[in-house]
Amino acid sequence: MIPPGFHLLVICLRHNDVMIRGLGLYSPTDAFDILDAQVGDSYDPGAVGDMLIGARDRAADIPDAFVWVGLFEPSRQELQTVAEAFDLDHLLVEDAANSAQRPKFELDDHGHGLVIVKVLDYVESTSDVNTGQVGIFVGPNYVITVRFGSTEDLRTIRARIQGSPNLRAMGPIGVLYAILDSVVDGYVAVSDEVSVDIENLETQVFSTEYSMSSVDQIYRLKRENVEIRRATNPLTPLAQHLTGRLVPWVPTELDPYFRDIGDHILRVSDAVESADNLLMTLLMASTSLQDLQQNQDMRKISGWVAIAAVPTMIAGIYGMNFDFMPELHQPWGYPLVLLLMGGSCFAIYRAFKRSGWL
Question: β-strand 20-26 against 31-33: which pairing, if any?
C-alpha cells in the first residue's frame, strides 16, 4: 500500500538549470513523492538512471500505479538517460528533444507512444503570444513530460491529478487528458484575446483616427494568429476523430471529456480561419484607405499648384520686359494686374472647394 498523506514534491537535480521538475508515484488511492529533496545539485547520469529504474519498478509492483517524470529543457544526454530507464523509442526521443517539433500524436491502440503539443500564452501587456512545447511519453505504467519554453509549468495539473482519484484511476491516459485539457483551454483563451484585439483594430481602421500604425498592428496580429494556427492545425484530424468517437485508446469514462477537447480544438481552428480572413479584409481596407488618403493629398497639392500657377504665369508675362504693353504706362495698370491675379486665384479656389479637392 502507498503510505497515506504523501504528496508530489517538486525536486531539483541541478542547482541552476533544473532538468527534473517533478517525480511522483500515483495510484487510484494516493500519490506520493519518490525522492528526498536532498538529492544533490550535480547531475550524475548513473545515479539518475538508477533512480528512475527504481521508480519504474516500484510502480510495477503496485496495482494500477504509474510514475510521472517531469522534465524541463533537458539536454540530449539527460533525455537519453531517461529514455534508457524507460526503454523509449529513439525516434520518438529525437522528436521530443526538438523544441521546434511539429505537434503530433503517435499513440498505438493502447494509447502508448508520444504526444507533442504547443503551449500558448497570451501576454496582456504587449498583446503577444508566447509559444512553448510539451512532449508527453505515455506508457503502461509511466508518463514522461518534456517541456520547453517559458510558458506556465505543470504544477497545477499535478495538483489536479493528486486531488482526483478518478483521473489517477485512468492511469497515464488520465494525465494525458489533464494536460491536453489545460493546453487546449489555453488555446481558447488566447484565441479569444486575439479576437478582442482584432475587433479593437477593426474599430480603429474605420475610425476618423486612422493612422499608418494600423498596418503594423495588422501584420503583428497576423503573426500571432499564425502561432495559433501552427499549434492547432496539426491537431484538427485528431479532434475530428475524438468528436466522432473514432479513437480506440480513449477510455469509456473519459470519452465525453476527450470529445470536449476535440470540440474546443475545432472551435479554435474555425476561429483562426475567421480571424485570418478578417485580418486580410482589414489589410485590404487599410491599403485602400491609404490609397484614398494619398489621392486626397495629391488632389490638394494639385489644387494649390494650379492656384499658384495663375499669378506665376501673369508675373512671368510681365517680367519679360516688353515695352509695348498699353497698360504698362498707365497708373491703373499695376492695381489691375494684382486684382486679376487675386480674382483668378479666388475663382479657382472656389471651383476646387466645390469639387472637394480642397
Answer: antiparallel
Cα(245)–Cα(256) distance, rounded to whole angstroms? 9
The pLDDT tens digits for 221-249 are 888 999 999 999 999 999 999 988 888 99
Q: What predicted TM-score, i.e. pTM, was given to this entire model? A: 0.77
The CA distance from 355 to 347, in Å, is 13
CA angle (334, 340, 344) in 5-degree steps: 155
| 55 close to 34: Cβ distance less than 8 angstroms | yes
Q: Kindly write down the DSSP assignment for every residue of 89-154, as one continuous string.
A: -HHHHHHHH-TTPPPEEEE-TTS-EEEEEEEEEEETTTTEEEEEEEEEEE-SSEEEEEEESSS--S
Express each pLDDT in 308-332 by its tens digit.
888 888 787 777 777 666 666 777 7
Q: Which residues pair with 145 in a beta bridge?
A: 70, 136
* pLDDT (average), residues 164-172: 92
Residue 80 grid coordinates? 537519453
DSSP assignment string, 254-271? GHHHHHHHHHHHHHHHHH
CB distance 310 to 352 below 8 Å: no
The DSSP bridge pattern shows strands 66-72 and 31-33 to be unpaired
List the alpha helices (DSSP H) in the chain. Answer: 45-61, 76-86, 90-97, 155-162, 165-169, 172-205, 213-232, 236-243, 255-318, 333-355
Look at residue 7 in the predicted model and tell me its pLDDT: 36
d(CA 59, CA 26): 8
Give residue 113's region: left, alpha or beta (phi > 0; psi -120 to 50): left
pLDDT for position 17: 46
Q: Write down the pLDDT at residue 173.
A: 95
SS3 labels along 291-313: HHHHHHHHHHHHHHHHHHHHHHH
Contacts 24+ apart (CB under 8 A), 316-325: none
Domains of the chain (ranges; CATH) run 289-355 (1.20.58.340)
Average pLDDT of the residues in 59-67: 90
Cβ–Cβ under 8 Å, residues 185 and 260: no
